[in-house]
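cron nightly-structures :: item 1 of 1
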Amino acid sequence: MTAEDTPVTSPTQRVLAVVLFNLLVYIVIGLPNAVLTIFVQNTLGYSTTIAGLAFSLQYLATFAARPSAGRLVDSRGPKPVVVIGLVACLLSGIAMLAAGLLAHLPALSLSIIFLSRLFLGWAESWAATGVIVWNIRRVGTKNTSVAISWNGICSYGGIALGAPVGAALAHLAAPFGGLNSVGGLSALLPLLGLIIIAFYTGVKPLPSTDKPLPFKSALRLVFPHGMALAMGGIGFGAISSFLALYYEVHHWSGAGHTLTVFGVVFVAIRFLFASQIGRRGGANVAIVSLSVEAVGLALLGFVHTPIASVIGAALTGAGFSLLFPALGVLAVNRAGPQNRGAALGAYSIFIDLAIACSGLLLGQIIEYSNYTIMFLTAAFCSLVGIGISRALGQRRG
């Protein structure tokens, strides 16, 4: 029995001690969700496509950082990777604060926002990858689903908490409102994390006589699971990138609260039904999840009322909730203990790329058609994911 397979009395308690760092990073990710695209379009005067690009840059950076995160977790251990992720998150918050202060210089402010989003994407990749592998090492491979599920609970719980807080901060009186206060809090939270993590003891990388798994090999290993995940990620991107603008177009209030409903439902489903992955099988859970997500997105596309938008966002959150762990437990364990970081990084790339592309492509759809077509396009992608998941289930059978 290896060190990472040693049983522990309370896996959840051990997971929570480390997943705190991921929670802090994702609160920072959630803070500008109901603010950023509106700031870029209304305050700085840029188009919907540029606003979508500003949002999506975070996920492009996360995508680019995944290979290095997985490789360093396997070779150096997870704690140093998490520390660097928190430093990148701190730099993102400082840049966001600067962008808010320089709103009277639109081009410069936008450039600094782009820089902030790149730092935040780096932070997300390194912190999330490091925290998951660190927790798997702490609780053993039999509790991999516990580590991944709680990571998701804190991730999207952080977004659900950060979105309304960011919206409230944005409405403060000048000079404290807007991106100024959002950026200030975005710098304070990772600084707190850096202070706390200094008191933690890390785990050493697992010894291995084999060569590290090349990233391309890891990518091929998890490709079908990643593609199904990516199809569901388009719907998440539609909600995260454009729900605030969707509310703005219809002159509704409460976008931040709707994003909170999305996150709260996500967390509740993950908390209550994560055990179904082991009982029903990952592919079956993915099929149900994508079906629920498709219904939620279709509701947003066809019914344009505040109540329908809340229900649609809730269904989308419920559907997306179990998708990552349902397919991720199977995908990550295929690479073996010594290459778990590489496999996790490769698998996670698919959701990064899906969300990054959705900000650009769905923004174009909005500009050349309308929000109905945008949401229905995302719903269709979920249906494609169902087909891939069915094929995965049949293949495993």
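cron nightly-structures :: done
The CA atoms of residues 288 and 319 lie 7 Å apart.
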